Amino acid sequence: MYRNIIALAVMSLPLILSPQILGLATDGLIHLENIAGKLSFIQREGNATYVRDKELASEVPTETKFELFDPRNTLRTARFTYTWDFGNGEVLKGSEPSVHYNYSSSGNYTLRLRVGAQMNKTSTLTGEYTMDFTVLDAIRNIELKSPLIFQVSRNNSLAVHVDGSPPMWVCWRFLQNCVSATPTGCHLTMLYENTMILNHTFTSLGVHCLDISARNDISKLQTSYSIFVRRDPSNILLFIMCTWIILAILAFITVIACRHKKGHNNKPQISKSSNATYSSMDMELQPQQDIPGITSDIYVSRPKKGEVQPLLQHGTRSVAYSCRI
């Protein structure tokens, strides 16, 4: 009986002394013999505070902190020294478990921290902890490189530049009159570079809005641009040319009509009726002795009352005469 109890106690001893049972977390901890701890990155921008793990934002105030794990306070009297190697050639030393340092450019870095704990004059504990991480540029600007005036019913290309470290998720949509009657989604695109080309055909004139947002692993940004859509200038030129041609044709027709009317007005106007009698005589008479029985008296007829004279036609004159024998 006692043998069984002793055997059970011996088998349970590793479990009782394990770090999990003792409250020592092993995931993400650094063990420097009797020292345990972990690194954390804290970035602050404005009123926002972000706890980072494997990715940092460049040009953002960053606090790198070493958190000591000493639940029994065995190292409460130790004097600590910290040597920070930021992986870009810069090294800082100090006695505080935290340091402020900002990475100015994006890239992959390895942080190395050496911790020394001097227990007494003869006893010193040392250890080293390393962490690989990536520094990314935050998205701070979305710029539309294309002009803000486009043409209707034509495939237009818009160049959008996003300042930030790719890869980035870009979501964009066009809104007519800058409003949407119903909630609409957006076109989601994975961007592996900083410039994106959007091809879009505007089907209506007026003001449109381009809503666009971008995000990467450490930041996000949203903006909007107002765009004016007008008619195609080539169509306007064609319309003007057609208008001039039509006006020229109308002017030509008007000139021809006026000339024709003027020609009719220049013709002599003849009175429809006239009571004037034109009489003339141009005769060569032979001597009376050559024409026996013919008197030399010549009578020119006079119009009787009510007698109708023939109309004058085409500028000629009607001549009426009679000879009485």
List keywords for this structure.
325 residues; alpha+beta; Immunoglobulin-like; five-stranded antiparallel sheet; five-stranded mixed sheet; 18 strands; rod-shaped; disordered N terminus; disordered C terminus; PKD_dom_sf
Task: Describe the global form.
Answer: rod-shaped
Mean pLDDT: 75
**Quaternary:** single chain
Distance between the termini: 194 Å
CATH topology of the domain at 20-136: Immunoglobulin-like
Low-confidence stretches: 1-32, 270-301, 303-325
What percentage of residues falls in helices of 4 or more residues?
10-25%
Query: How many extended strands?
Result: 18
CATH architecture title of the domain at 20-136 = Sandwich
At the fourth level of CATH, the homologous superfamily of the domain at 20-136 is Immunoglobulins
CATH top level class name of the domain at 20-136:
Mainly Beta
Q: What is the H/E string?
A: HHEEEEEEEEEEEEEEEEEEH
- How many helix segments? 3
The major pleated sheet works out as: 5 strands, antiparallel
Structural class: alpha+beta
Strand percentage: 35-45%
Calculate Rg over CA atoms.
57 Å
Topology summary:
Blueprint: H1 2-16, H2 19-22, E1 30-32, E2 35-45, E3 48-52, E4 55-57, E5 62-69, E6 79-85, E7 91-94, E8 98-100, E9 107-118, E10 124-136, E11 141-144, E12 149-151, E13 155-163, E14 168-176, E15 187-191, E16 195-201, E17 206-215, E18 220-230, H3 233-265
Parallel strand pairs: 4-10, 12-18
Antiparallel strand pairs: 1-2, 2-3, 2-5, 5-8, 6-7, 6-9, 9-10, 11-13, 13-16, 14-15, 14-17, 17-18
